[in-house]
Amino acid sequence: MIPMKTGAGEGGMARNKYPEETVKRILDVAEELFMTKGYEQTTMADIVNHLGGLTKGAVYHHFKSKEDIFEAVFERANRPVVERAEAIISNQSLSGIEKIRALDESSAEGPSADMLRAMRPSSDPVQNSRLLAREFADALEVAHRYIEPVIREGVADGTVSSEFPRETAEVMLLLANLWMVPLFHPLADESEFERRVSVLVRVMHALGVDLVDWKFFDPARMWDDSWGALARDFIADDGGEDDRS
To answer: How buried is 90 (Cβ within 10 angstroms: 0-12 exposed, 13-18 middle, 19+ buried)?
Structure first.
């Protein structure tokens, strides 16, 4: 059960004297509801009702929709991933390809991945086109902000041989963040996961970026790493069935 939260003094929160604290309360309650009930089953009314005195108008003053709240919750949870990425990129002891591999591994870890597993927002393009559009836009933004510069570093230090750093970064992120993620492209079983891993690795190799050390590459082993953990949870939740038409 989600605890009811009270305002800070008579009318204090309602008059929005502390907007940052108000936003934090909204996000805390919404995150708990999304995690326990699921994103699709949570309504704006649920969020308002669990805020203990905060009015509907106050909530809508900060967020126009449940989708806006979800995006803010996810962005807040994703901050540690962004911080890790920035630390990797600024690490001068790593080569370009080492940074790319470290970024690829770290992207499947952290609270944001756990939240996706628990919240299970619909990836149906009709029901939740905004989520897919956001993921597409975010993938390109991350590609341009983080991956493209690192690919260029790799080209400069000889560990990457890409002729088209910007486009290569875009392909990598769109495949990794949409095509590889079971939420957006359901997986039937472990063997399908292994095939997708093999295709992703080979596509990137053809573009001049070796995501793995080929001497040790075994797609079956990746089933036990962080990407495999994410895939396993979605397959288990779906009962091992592929729901694609």
So the answer is: exposed
pTM confidence score? 0.74
Q: Which domains does the chain have, with CATH numbers?
A: 19-73 (1.10.10.60), 78-237 (1.10.357)
3-state helix, strand, coil in the chain (%, to 5): 60, 0, 40
Nearest Cα residue to 104 out of 156, 169, 54: 169
178 contacts 135 by C-beta, under 8 angstroms: yes
Q: Which two tokens stand for residue 44?
A: 């704006």
Q: How far is CA 124 from the centre of its chain?
A: 17
Average pLDDT of the chain is 80
Q: What is each CA distance from 75 to 71, 80, 134, 224, in whole angstroms?
A: 6, 10, 12, 27
